[in-house]
Amino acid sequence: MDIRKNFVATGIMLCTLLQPSSSQDVRAIDRILAAYGGESPGASLLIVRDGQVLLQRHYGYADLENKQPVSAATNFRLASVSKQFTAACILQLVHQGKLDLSTTIPEAFPEFPAYGNAVTVKHLLTHTSGIPDYEDYVADTAFNPQIKDSGVLDILIQLDSGYFAPGTQHRYSNSGYALLALMVEHYSSQSFAAYLREHIFIPLGMTSTVAHEAEKTTVPARAFGYSLLNGQWKRRDQSATSAVLGDGGIYSNVMDLAIWDQALYGEDVLPAHWINESFACHKLANGDNVPYGYGWHLKKTNSGEQVVYHTGSSTSFRNIFYRIPSRRFSIILLTNRNQPQEEDMLTLAEQVADLIFL
User: Fold this and answer.
1) What is the homologous superfamily of the domain 3-357 according to CATH?
2) What pLDDT was estimated at residue 313?
3) Which residue, 16, 14, 22, is CA-closest to 355?
4) Domain coordinates of the chain in residue numbers?
5) How far apart are the C-alpha atoms of 175 and 254, rounded to whole Å?
6) For residue 88, what pLDDT is reported?
7) Which residue in 236, 258, 293, 216 sits closest to 73, CA to CA?
8) Where is each Beta-lactamase-related domain found (predicted)?
């Protein structure tokens, strides 16, 4: 199935026809996102229902200095929205039998200290590993050079303990997804960026999406990140950790992500049982539910429907990919500024969803 061809044919051409229930709803959405308009860092919004574009809205600038407005083609740094792609790569390799959910860190990296002996791939996927977050050990000024995924491993090798015994608690840690990206490289014999390109982006027709590596790749129609400092927007596009790929280094746009969204309803990327497991609550050792699948946060709507979502926050980018699979409904909102707080992106998505479903 050519997902891109099908989506372009049925979705984009209908985007001006399949608006929310009234123009009043569109104006209400514009009010919710009004802060992104004008001569400021902007936002790109896409709402998809039943495989068709319900609404596209684009606000503000992708590049303030050159007055480049945000469009459907604008590529934003996804930050932690990238984690779902890292998880998908790992699950592909598990499905091929190249590793297992029970594979431990030392099986891939024998030099890893004893605190990782019982940490499995599943623990890393679900943030139940207890592996410390590497960002706590990287100075904001460490730009020369920026740390990469292999540098995360170097940091973790120097430590002698984790936060807790694996499987006993849930604590979000970017380190786990950097290690998973390195496992993709170890078990596929390809670089992580090359694996993504060959096994996900190209097959699906996500032609603008890239795991960006400075001096190796370019980002077309790139949005640059901005932070509000002393009342003015200043370009602050990178941090010391922005070159780590597995936890947040992918750039994409709303249309490519819509293609990915539709692929998750089929088996073009993974067999259905792996996708379903990615959206399932897993258990701690004491039986408590973990509100995180494989690369996705999990919650319920007020009416009890399952929501799978991920926010993304890095230097001057705030994003959310919000899905209600039972309704085949998704909201993709990408922005290039350091506001609001990451958790508030979920609130924005829910406000938009409420307008459509009221």
Assistant:
1) DD-peptidase/beta-lactamase superfamily (3.40.710.10)
2) 97
3) 22
4) 3-357
5) 27
6) 98
7) 258
8) 30-344
Is the entire prediction scored with pTM above 0.90? yes
Give the CA distances from residue 241 to residues 24, 134, 186, 220, 247, in Å, rounded to whole numbers and listed in that order. 42, 9, 22, 21, 10
pLDDT at 357: 81
Q: Where are the alpha helices (DSSP H) in the chain?
A: 3-10, 23-32, 83-95, 105-108, 121-126, 149-157, 174-188, 192-196, 202-204, 254-263, 272-278, 342-357
**pLDDT at residue 288 is higher than 90:** yes
How confident is the model over 211-223, as pLDDT tens digits?
999 999 999 999 9
The pLDDT of 17-34, averaged and rounded, is 76
**Is residue 348 scored above 70 in pLDDT?**
yes
Q: Hey, what amino acid is at 17?
A: L
- The two beta strands, 250-252 and 282-283, are unpaired
Asked if 74 and 223 touch (Cβ cutoff 8 Å), the reply is: yes
How many CA within 13 A on the CB side of residue 261? Answer: 33
Among 276, 254, 121, 278, smallest CA distance to 184 is for: 121
